[in-house]
Amino acid sequence: MWPRHGSLLSILSVSALSPAVLAVWPFPERQYKVEGWINSGQLGLDIKGSVVALGDWDADQYLDLFVLDDSRTNVQIHRFDPVGHVYQLAHELSSPKPVENVIPADFNQDGRLDLVLLTVNDGTDQGWWAHGGDDLVAMLHIQEKDGAPRKEGINIEGFTHNQPFIVDADGDLKPDLLGTGRTESGGESLQMWKESDGVFERYQVPLEPATKLCRLAEPHSNAFVDLDGDCLADLFLMCERSGSKRSFQIWRNRKAAGFHLAGEWDLPAGAGAVTFADMDRDGTIDLVFPTCSSVSSSTGIGRGCSINIAYNKQKPLCSSSSGSWLAGLSQVVAVPKKDCRESFDLCTADEAFTFDLGATSDAFTTVPVVSLFPGTTSLLFAEPKTSTSKTAAHIPLRIGDYNIDGFPDILVLVPNNTAAPPSGGIFGGGRNPGVQVRVLENTACKKKDAACQDGKYQARRRHFKVEDEVGMSALDDIWDATNAAWLDVGEDGTLDIIVERTGRQDAGRVTFIKNNAFHDAFFLKALVLDGACQGDACISASDGESYSPYGSNLPGGNFKFTILDTAGNRVPAQIPQMPQTAYRTLQAPYSFFGLGRTNNYIEKLFIGSTKHDLEHYTTIEGVIPNSHIVINPPLPSAANGSAEVREASSDWHKTLYLQPGKWMQWVIATATVIVVILAGVTYMLHNAEKREDELDRRKTMHRINFAAFG
Question: What is the pLDDT of residue 122?
């Protein structure tokens, strides 16, 4: 007999959960089973130093760490092992002089990541560029075929004490160093250093008008980032004004015509490091920075601090680009308007873009620290000044969308007078001061918020609230923090936290905090390469060996897109790729951005490169959320490429990797069980129907036989 329906369900359910079935379960067991923020320890990174840069050294699409030891003369490369889920020491590089910064990039454009070490001139360098002991000397270490950095470096000379940063001034997709250099007359000027056949040559930066260039600040937040909305990176330069005041200049990238001055804006008094992100999700890059009324040079702690957002005022998305899907169909024949951007034409420049940093402006938000953390007005504003550094580097606000809702959040370092436990046990005094890491969630302005007055609420500006979800004790327990940054450990689609520490708590110098909280939203991870190789593989010109170019990211790349939210509104967003490389910015080589809750794919993703060709960007339609996309642009026709590579990129190459969600295995298992149940029920009903048909056939035959006898 066939079992009844209920019995069949029971048998199938038990079979689905039996040990035999679990033994062949195709999905790996989740490493973290508890939701929330989890202290993952050091993950093998038992170091005596600090993490100074992030990059994919071995091009395996896992983020590696560059560590500078306490002597500041030894740089270590720690590779991530995805099997053991730990970092392992892979290579070491020694420097005869103290290292100020480490910049990973593909400087010779062979598809492999290289290293530039910025060191302090000890006075032994000769030549007209030598200027005492406060100037910088850079050393380029090319990555060899075996993956090790070349011990003998290429000297890059002529810098002042102001740290250079990466740009692509001539649009050949090859990183250049831009900074202030010494002139033969003993003065200073803005110069560009470019690698060519193993030698760095210096050029004047094409600025128009060059006479308007300000005196660059030190330390600075100079960046190569798109600020006029055309998907082409511009120059952001921080300027030194009289006294302690600062300003910034933006020079628009006009490709072969050079950089044209768009304007200069004053920063509020006490402004620190500037970071770049689309904070209000309007498709433009905003400025985020702290201000403090005073800063201690010995501790780097600022007092009377606030967190500020200067919103980029550009053309909004056209109203016809929002609403139902019917509006999306009409865009194909729509005529672009002058006062707004259509969603199918996001990479159009707004030459009238501007910033307004006035206290009462609806495009400038100031959130006092005391309103977020009652009882303190302090932030860890700068690194303590060392004997070899002329100035202390400012600590930027770390931007990352940890809850992937589409609005970037902030990591801050907050000094707390009661963070550390009492010394001397139960007989000790009160609790001691320490520095803790705090997560500030990006939230919408409310009418009652003091920081949201003067039209800011009506303009839909943003505010912050201290993240206090269950599991935040993983951060609360750390009180010896010196720095922190966002990164995706294990590349599983969540932003985790790396905390650098003094070691006072005897828990090592580095701690990783795993973000294992459930977020009902989607993300996208994107990477623009430098066009060094054709497609997704490099072929060595000397021996034909194939290797991956995924470590050769392009600083200055950017992404723009629109997506439909759950209410059917079309929302724009813009995300830069590695806009800053000076002063240990700890920025990942790729762009990670939340998409929020959506029932749809990304309609059109715009990918901007730094090329000076007519079309410096490309588009991809129908991008699936929770994926990793790698874009390799074609090398410009005027660029030569590297002689080490057999064939450079000749067209736009796009590769999409899907990232399964945390619950994907359960969805598949549930769907499989349902299919088996439905198949069983169908089979049961099919056989029951066959029996009924057989009985009907026999009854019919029986009646026919009796009729024949009659």
Answer: 65
